[in-house]
Amino acid sequence: MVSDTSRLGFYLLLAPILLWLVLLIILPHVGLFVVSISEKIGPREYETGFDNYAAFFTEPLYWRTFARTAIMSILATALTLILGFPIAYYIAKLTRGRTKTTLFLMCMIPFWVSELVRTFGWMILLRETGVFSNVLQYLGVVSGPVEMLYNDAAIMVGLVYTSILFMVVPLVTTLDSLDDSLIEAGYDLGGTSTSILREIVIPHAMPGIVSGCIVVFMLSLGNYLTPILLGGKDSLWFTGMIYTQFITRFNWELGSAFGFLLLALSSFVVFLGLKLSGQSLSETMGRS
Amino acid sequence: MRISLVSSLAVVAALTAQSAQAETLRLLTWGGYAPEEVIAMFEAETGHTVEVTTSNNEEMIAKLRATSGGGFDLAQPSQDRIASAQEEFGIYKPIDMSRVNADLFIPSMLSATASNTTYDGEVYGVPHVWGTSGLVVNTAMAGDVTDYADLCDASVSGKVSYRLKRPTLIGFAYSMGLDPFAAYSDTAAYQDILDQVEAKLTECKPNVKTYWDGGDEIKNLLRSGEVVASMAWDTGGWQLNADNPDITFVAPEAGALGWIDTFVLPARGRADDAAYDWINFVMQPEIAAMITNTAGNFTAAVDGDAGVSADLKARYQGSFDQAAIDNIKWYPPVPAGLEALEGATLDRINAAN
């Protein structure tokens, strides 16, 4: 009797997540996969096969864009970590009480407006007739207008800005749980700042670093707006390519295959990252 | 089959005639084609309500394809994209010409659109708004740009923008003395044209500041002076002309590319009555003039230009003399499968360094 009720409760609690997984994640992916293995041979005529996947490997443009997207996402993740770590350390360890809350809030405030608005903000700053260009001219640093938009550096700035919060939050949480006395003990035992950072702080923060990196990497890899708006004529991004296949080329079959390849790529890179850092996914997600 | 279709249509018509009730019209259209005041007048007159979704050609087809023609009751794709989309995806239903008031339409446009949107003996589209794409140029800074190929001239290096889409391929082909529309039915000849255009556009790439995507983006670039010559729609040029007299639309020497946006009925639309009511309502001359004044483009309505603002007429006449009008290259229907060739070409241009 008791076990029956508790089992009912278990299933009731399980139902939302199960519905979420099946209806919004598994079913669409099954549909996507079915579309991705159908080849178009004429109007309203389709055949089953893996030609769409083959097209990806035979056309250099596709896999080059794919590799480019992955490398730039990894770079963006690394930059976000380098920028986010000192911020998180400062918030978690060097401030107390109200200052801490205020600083944390300041990191979050930009995320209260949509990504589109934030990206347009960067466009206003970086464009040839924009704020930075005008300030530099006013200060006499440059003689004519400078264009800072429409290149890979602009994409990088946008990506780091868009995702830095998702690095700072898990880092602050893990660094918060680090006992200050451990750091003091390190100094007492004659450790330098560098060695304490290397031997105590980073190992303790590792789960936060890894989970932050996973989230930032996924966000960058799957970002569509930032690369499209800030990128230039050579700045191809894989999600943009998927959009093109679906919308402007009416080629849902190839677009679906690309979608699956993107899923495989991101899973592979995350797996590789976990192996290299010696973390397990469950430990990372559980602790941070 | 035909008889049963006709008889069922008759039954439906009889039923709806008995209970001509208010419906919700879900309209999939372009920005500016359904101004607020027109909607308010339509709702007051017919009792129907209108929900507007703005989009573009490709997204309209993609949206309707995703739902097999459901979710909307009336859509407005360009006439050259209807027959092939119908052939490939079956997302539209035929227009019942007896329910459209043909007197409101300019006869030549109505018949041209009907023949261009015929698939399997059925007509799928009636014309609404027409316009062209060509060059929008800041004449003070790039007065020498008079044709598509002039965008590759060294004098405007780094200050040029165009879209990486099919109109660009076609415009450049005409500018290079080729005739892409004549080659539509001959895949090999069309591929040959595409290859020549690809070489030209790849060579031209260093001249380009960025490839634009949205109408507002290119207007911003031109208004700020960051771009001085571009390939864009006529209405964008005329809107900018209102703010800055130097910028205007120039009909290219090789010919502006003419498009006609139509009315089509999505296959699973539920409010056909409201859809036909809307078509017959907006094609009235005074309503058509209101739409022209907001959208910036002229309509296929008889006398639709009578109530158009004098400013817009002056800009139109400034861009188009009679020779330029005669030289407009109207898009013929795109054969199914042609876009795959163009897509590959555009991809290669995009990837070229």
Could you explain the architecture of this structure?
The complex is a heterodimer of chains A (288) and B (353). Chain A is mainly alpha-helical and 288 residues long. Chain A has two domains: 30 residues; 228 residues, MetI-like fold (Orthogonal Bundle), CATH 1.10.3720.10. In chain A, α1 packs across α12, α7 packs across α9 and α9 crosses α13. The two termini of chain A are 38 Å apart. By secondary structure, chain B is of the alpha/beta class. In chain B, strands 7, 8, 9, 10, 11, 13 and 14 form a seven-stranded mixed sheet that branches. Chain B has a three-stranded parallel sheet with strand order 2-1-3. In chain B, strands 4-12 form a two-stranded antiparallel sheet. In chain B, β5 and β6 form a beta hairpin. Chain B starts with a helix and ends with a helix. The interface between A and B is medium-sized, with 26 and 29 residues.
SSE arrangement:
The complex is a heterodimer of chains A (288) and B (353).
Chain A: H1 2-36, E1 38-42, E2 45-48, H2 51-58, H3 60-94, H4 97-108, H5 115-126, H6 131-138, H7 152-176, H8 180-188, H9 193-221, H10 225-230, H11 238-248, H12 252-277, H13 281-287
Antiparallel strand pairs in A: 1-2
Helix pairs in contact in A: 1-12, 2-3, 2-12, 3-7, 3-9, 7-9, 8-9, 9-12, 9-13, 11-12
Chain B: H1 2-18, E1 24-29, H2 36-46, E2 49-54, H3 57-66, E3 74-75, H4 82-89, E4 92-93, H5 107-116, E5 118-119, E6 122-123, E7 126-138, E8 160-161, H6 166-175, H7 187-204, H8 215-223, E9 229-233, H9 234-243, E10 247-250, E11 257-263, E12 265-266, H10 272-282, H11 285-295, E13 298-299, H12 310-319, H13 322-326, E14 329-330, H14 338-351
Parallel strand pairs in B: 1-2, 1-3, 8-9, 11-14
Antiparallel strand pairs in B: 4-12, 5-6, 7-9, 7-10, 7-11, 7-13
Helix pairs in contact in B: 6-7, 7-14, 8-9
